[in-house]
Amino acid sequence: MRTDSKRRKRSLVAVSAVLGGVLMLAACGGEDDGKPGAAETSKSQAEVDAAAAKDASKARITITPKDGATNVGLNDATNVAVSDGTLTSVELKTSEGTAVAGKIAADGKSWKPDAALKRSTKYALSATAKDAGGREAHENASFTTVSPENSFVGSFIPDEGQTVGVGMPVSITFNKPIKDQKAVQAAISVTSSSGQEIVGHWFGSQRLDFRPEQYWQANSTVTLKLALEGVQGAPGVQGVQNKTVTFKIGRSQVSTVDAKSKKMTVTRDGAVLKTIPISAGSPENPTYNGQMVISEKFKETRMDGSTVGFKNEEGKGEYDIKDVPHAMRLSTSGTFIHGNYWGSDSIFGSVNTSHGCVGLNDAKGANDPNQPAAWFYDNSLIGDVVTVVNSPDKTVKPDNGLNGWNMSWAEWKAGAAV
User: Fold this and answer.
1) Cα(122)–Cα(141) distance, rounded to whole angstroms?
2) In this predicted model, what pLDDT tens digit does every residue of 257-281 receive, in sequence order?
3) What pLDDT is recorded for position 50?
4) Mean pLDDT (the chain, rounded)
5) Residue from 343, 358, 209 nearest 289 by CA
6) What confidence tens digit (pLDDT) does each residue in 139-158 have?
7) What is the largest CA-CA distance in the chain?
């Protein structure tokens, strides 16, 4: 009896195990709960994805720069383009939420900002476009612009639209030393409607001037193009400027100061316009010889000798005149051609008395148009040439002001990087 009882229990356990296995297999197979299996679910999701893709907009938006970009340029490095559709909205904002103005092109195919971006600023850009069926596409990107430490700019003269004399070079001063001068110069072009050959010359690592072999042709037009955005001026330092500047060359006026005869002859378009008595630098402080270009004009200005090395025993300037009339700068070191109201009328044309400047008779207050200095001031342009001859001093250095004309053409071209 005991033996049979034990057998029956073992048999029941075995049957239960088999049935349990069947039930377990049935549960794993999912046949009894009425729900779709994994294969069926996967198939359904693929169908959903395919349907969504089939209904997606055909418009393809491209944002430049790419999402996450750093050291992005400020001018032309940011834009949006679309293919197979048209842009409906573009929004560019700083991380602080300030909106940046921009315009979608008339054909709806592109967008760009209205002005240069700010340095060291994070921006977020979002764009929306529609295809021919009206279906929308969206794209987003964020980027950071180049920092001041990693960028350089060039300040230049002349300015846009300015009319200047025939001696005016294009002069660019960079705010950081340029190591790769070849790359930087190659990204700058200067052309003239006259067809003159124009060559750049480096004065050190931060100044680049351009001029033709002879003075600019009168009444020509000169164009400066800076394509410096992204150009590596030095390791880790890139340009951020793309700019085109056009200026005019006026009539041809070159004035010759003869320090020995103490007269200045003003020649315009090849004809003598006027001869003016002058008083140049004294024998102790002679005026530089050479071709000097008028770089600044001041109806009245202060001239303090201490700023240019003329000091007395007390350390004060040998002169300090607060209202020098009709002053025009000829050199960085302080050479001017200007009005002189404090000297006797008799010195002009007879005695050289200045500390190196060229003086013309004038009246205090700069309000008498009949004075020689007033006439010369009113008839001069920035960029006109004043050439000094027969002075006992040396020739002015080419980089002392805008005075590269004192170099031969061969010397000038030797200073080019390209």
Assistant:
1) 11
2) 999 999 999 999 999 999 999 999 9
3) 61
4) 89
5) 358
6) 999 999 999 999 999 999 99
7) 157
Q: For residue 236, give every residue at least 6 positions away whose Cβ sits within 8 Å of its Cβ, in sequence order, or none.
A: 150
Question: What token pair was written down for 282?
Answer: 């004294």
**pLDDT greater than 60 at residue 8:** no
Mode of pairing for the β-strands spanning 385-389 and 253-258 = parallel
First to last CA, the chain: 115
CA distances from 56 to 45, 51, 60, 164, 340 (A): 16, 9, 11, 59, 80
Residue 15 pLDDT: 38
CB-CB contact of 331 with 288 (8 Å): yes
Q: Which of 8-12, 274-278, 314-318 has the lowest mean pLDDT?
A: 8-12
Residue 13 has pLDDT above 70, yes or no: no
Asked whether 339 and 362 are in contact (CB, 8 A), the reply is yes
Is 276 in a helix, a strand, or coil? strand
Q: Is there a cis peptide before residue 398, judged by omega within 30 degrees of 0?
A: no
Amino acid code (one letter) for 77: A
DSSP string, 170-195: EEEEESS--S-HHHHHHTEEEEETT-
CB 212 within 8 A of CB 404: no
Cβ–Cβ < 8 Å for 406, 300: no
Other beta carbons within 10 angstroms of residue 43's beta carbon come to 12
Contact 217, 250 (CB under 8 A): no
Q: Which residues contact 64 (CB under 8 A, 6 or more apart)?
A: 77, 78, 79, 80, 81
Contact of 130 with 136, CB cutoff 8 Å: yes
pTM recorded for the entire structure:
0.79
